[in-house]
Every structure is written in structure tokens, then in C-alpha cells.
Amino acid sequence: MRVHICAVGRLRTGPERDLIDDYLQRFDRTGRPLGLGPANVIEVEDRKGGGMAAEADLLERAVPAGALLCVLDERGRQMSSPDFAAEMARWRDGGRQDAAFVIGGADGIAPALRARAGFALSFGAMVWPHMLVRVMLAEQLYRAASILAGAPYHRV
Fold first, then answer.
1. Between vectors from CA 6 to CA 149 and to CA 122, what angle results, nearest 5°?
2. In total, how many domains does the chain have?
């Protein structure tokens, strides 16, 4: 199952980029034998200043046809890392070819796009900067692959 991270904004060179690149490389290495990956990041940017609606349109166009639309949103489902790994395995085992994790901009995800999502994931009730959410998602993808592989990275 291919994984797409569709996000608003361009991530410049720096510590966040380094972390994302490292975790996604680890995810690809660990996940491929399990049928997970590759992972790629698709960045969109609303240059015309159309707000959440314009961002939602760009994000929707970035999601591959037929992909499970997963939004990152504070109103989404909070789950443990093993539960997230099990969810990804269910998607993969159910024949899902693509999963697209959508991260909105500073104002979040437009309600209409959020309503179309097949899955909503929350990293807690706190609001996180969208660039940090990318890092957290990349780490959790790697952690999920490690859990499914039985690797020692995740400890209870």
C-alpha cells in the first residue's frame, strides 16, 4: 500500500525536513517487505490566498484516485501506536492500494474535505504546527511498520 502525505506549504531545508526524510526512509526500508510503501510527500501551496477552500481544492487534486482519504485533525480519532499499525494493516489486507494522509494549513482542513474523509486521525486535543504534524506522522508511519515487522523500535 502506497502512502502519500499531502500537505499545505513548502517545507524548507532544516531539522523538520531532516527528520521527515529520515523517518520516511526508515518506513520505506521496513515497510516494503510488508507491503507498505513507498511513502511520498506532495506539497501544495495556495498562492492566490483563497483560504481553506482553495487549500482543500489543491489537496483533493493531490490525493491519488481511489486512495483512502485520511485527514489529520484534532477532532479525529486518537489511538495508540499499535492500534494505528493494526489499522494500516487492515487497510493493506483489505486491498487498499493507496492511503493519502492530508495535513491542512494554519487554519486546518475545510469542513467539506474533512467530511469526505474515510478516516480522521488526531495526535491529541492540542493543536500542533502543521510542519510538526508532518514529522509526527512520518515517525508514526515508521513506528507502525516496525510494530508490524516485530522490530524492537516500539516498546510498551
1. 65
2. 1
CATH number at 16 reads 3.40.1280.10
145, 34 Cβ separation under 8 angstroms? yes
DSSP per residue, 44-83: E--TT--HHHHHHHHHHHHSPTT-EEEEEEEEEE---HHH
Mean pLDDT of 106-126: 94
How far is it, in rounded angstroms, from Cα 106 to Cα 88?
A: 27
pTM score, two decimals? 0.95
CB–CB of 110/56 below 8 Å?
yes
pLDDT at 94: 98
Size of the chain in residues: 156
**What is the chain's Cα-based Rg?**
15
Q: Is the pLDDT of residue 66 over 80?
A: yes
Query: Which residue segment(s) compose the domain that 71 sits in?
Result: 2-149
